[in-house]
Amino acid sequence: MLLPHSSIWLRTAGGFAPGDREEPFANFYFGGFGNNYIDRKEPKRYREVESFPGFELNEIGGTNFVKGLIDWNLAPLRFRRLGTSALYAPWLRTSLFAGGLSTNMDLPSLRRTVFDVGIQSDLQIQLLTQYKLMLSGGYARGFEDGQRTSDEWMVSLKVL
Fold first, then answer.
1. Is 2 part of any domain?
2. The pTM is what?
3. 21-34 pLDDT, tens per residue?
4. By the 8 A CB rule, do 86 and 53 touch?
5. Burial class of residue 1 (count of CB atoms within 10 Å of its CB; 0-12, 13-18, 19+)
6. Does residue 63 come out as left (phi exceeding 0), alpha (psi in the -120 to 50 range) or beta?
7. Is 157 exposed, middle or buried (CB count within 10 Å of its CB: 0-12, 13-18, 19+)?
8. Chain segment 91-130, per-residue pLDDT in tens
9. Which domain covers residue 91, as residue numbers?
C-alpha cells in the first residue's frame, strides 16, 4: 500500500441533452472548483459533476459529455497541539486529483477534450468547543491539446 489509511476513488459521469446546440439551456457546463469564499456546502466540490478545476466557471460546455476523475485521499494529519483551548485545529486532510472531460463528441468540429490535475487541503478548526469551521485551499492546472491553458486557486471557509 502506498500510504496507510489513504483511498483512491474513480468517479465517472456522462450525459446527453437532445436540445438545440445553440440553446444555452440545452448544454451542460463545466469549470472551476465551485467553492465560495464563505460557504455552507461540502468543501470538496471538485468531485461534483459540473466542477472542473483549472478552468473558469462554466468555461467548458456541450450537449453531451463524458467525464472521469481519479481522487486520491491521503490519511488526515492529526495535530496534538495546534492552537489554544478556545481555537484549535485537530486535523488536516489532503486530496490529489486528476480528471478528463470530453464534450460534443458527436461533432468533431466542436469536440473539446480537456484535462486537469490538482490538490485540495482541508483544515478542521474548532472554535469555542461548539463551532466547527473548515478552511479549504486548493490549486488546479488545466490542459487542452497537450498545452497548459490555465491555473486556478481556491480558498474557502465553511461554517459547519
1. no
2. 0.90
3. 888 889 999 999 99
4. no
5. exposed
6. alpha
7. middle
8. 999 999 999 999 999 999 999 999 999 999 999 998 887 8
9. 7-159
